[in-house]
Recover the amino acids of this structure.
């Protein structure tokens, strides 16, 4: 596979149980197949330590703003988005195969953001509440008011028309 950032050949590198493709001697970027990044993105995951110091060529110039094509799918342009709610690192993700492209230094930043998956989830929940909490509370209150109105109407109908008067529900009825 070729590096989408600098065109160098990617070298398969095994760390722990994960084999990733690294741009050794080029820009120092790393390709993670689907679900591989989750195995090295936390400080507690020792396998990721070996990927923090990838050999780079200082003469290689990379345009970090350029769109990247997936090194695995080749004709697919990767989507760029923030990896976490802290919004410190933008990663490139292939919409077709689910792989991630991390430029040099991005893995170290990712690993320093959260101590564990629980901390990551707590931060995401807090961010969600900050962004949508007021709107969600408002919609919940509206839904509760509609439910209470519907329950009042149902009680009125039960009073006006008990089930033993509903046609077809009694043995002696006309229907």
């Amino acid at each position: 596979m070729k590096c989408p950032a600098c065109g160098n050949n990617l070298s398969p590198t095994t760390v722990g149980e994960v084999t990733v493709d690294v741009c050794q001697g080029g820009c120092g970027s790393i390709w993670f197949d689907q679900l591989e990044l989750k195995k090295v993105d936390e400080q507690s995951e020792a396998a990721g330590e070996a990927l923090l110091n990838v050999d780079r060529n200082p003469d290689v110039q990379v345009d970090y703003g350029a769109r990247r094509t997936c090194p695995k799918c080749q004709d697919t342009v990767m989507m760029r988005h923030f990896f976490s709610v802290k919004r410190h690192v933008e990663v490139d993700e292939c919409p077709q195969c689910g792989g991630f492209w991390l430029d040099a230094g991005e893995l170290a930043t990712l690993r320093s953001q959260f101590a564990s998956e629980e901390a990551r989830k707590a931060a995401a929940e807090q961010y969600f509440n900050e962004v949508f909490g007021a709107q969600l509370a408002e919609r919940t209150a509206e839904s509760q008011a509609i439910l209470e109105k519907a329950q009042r109407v149902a009680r009125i109908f039960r009073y006006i028309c008990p089930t033993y008067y509903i046609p077809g529900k009694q043995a002696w009825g006309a229907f």
In short: Residues 11-115 form one domain. The radius of gyration is 28 Å.
